[in-house]
Amino acid sequence: MSKVQNSVQVLLVSDLEISKAFYRDVLECEVTEWWAVRDEFGLGFKLIEANHPDDITPNTPGKGQDKSWDTYAYVETHIELDELYKQLKDRGAKINQVPEIYDFEWGSWKEFSIKDPDNYVIAFGSGKKSD
């Protein structure tokens, strides 16, 4: 069976240049004509300018959810998550959710989220306190 190596999220954006600047300057992605990728496609987006502003539709919360995400990315440890939060905040990210810890039978989960210029929510989470 063939193995999928990476995936990217396709986002319709209102202004391609504004979005490219956000993904480059805030998320520290390598940005090309269409792509915004970070960490060797660990986080990847294909940015396409929308024909009409009504075409841009960030996700709404699903059944039983109190928040929504458009992209969810993972980091190894809570320490790395805290470092990433600080880096993104220092780079001017619009914070949607500050880091929160959730305790489960199997351990703890920590996450935070930011919003891009079109209000797409990009969340980051970790299930491991430390190495």
Strand content: 35-45%
Count structural domains: 1
Query: What structural class is derived from the secondary structure elements?
Result: alpha/beta
What is the strand tally?
8
> Please, what is the average pLDDT?
93
Helical fraction: 10-25%
Order of helices and strands: EHEEEEHEEE
Low-confidence stretches: none
- General form: globular
Spatial order of the strands forming the largest sheet:
1-4-3-2
**C-alpha-based Rg, rounded:** 15 Å
The biggest sheet amounts to:
4 strands, mixed
Number of helices: 2
Name of the CATH class: Alpha Beta
Q: Quick one: CATH superfamily?
A: 2,3-Dihydroxybiphenyl 1,2-Dioxygenase, domain 1
Protein name: VOC family protein
Domain VOC: 4-127
Organism: Cohnella silvisoli
Pfam families: Glyoxalase_2
Describe this structure in words.
This protein is α/β, with parallel strands linked by helices. It has helices spanning 16-25, 78-90, and strands at residues 9-13, 30-31, 35-38, 43-49, 71-74, 94-104, 107-115, 121-126. The chain has two helices and eight strands, in the order E-H-E-E-E-E-H-E-E-E. The protein has a four-stranded mixed β-sheet, covered by helices on one side. The protein starts with 8 loop residues before the first strand and ends in a 5-residue tail after the last strand.
In short:
The chain is an alpha/beta fold and 131 residues long. It contains 2 helices and 8 strands; from the N terminus they run βαββββαβββ.
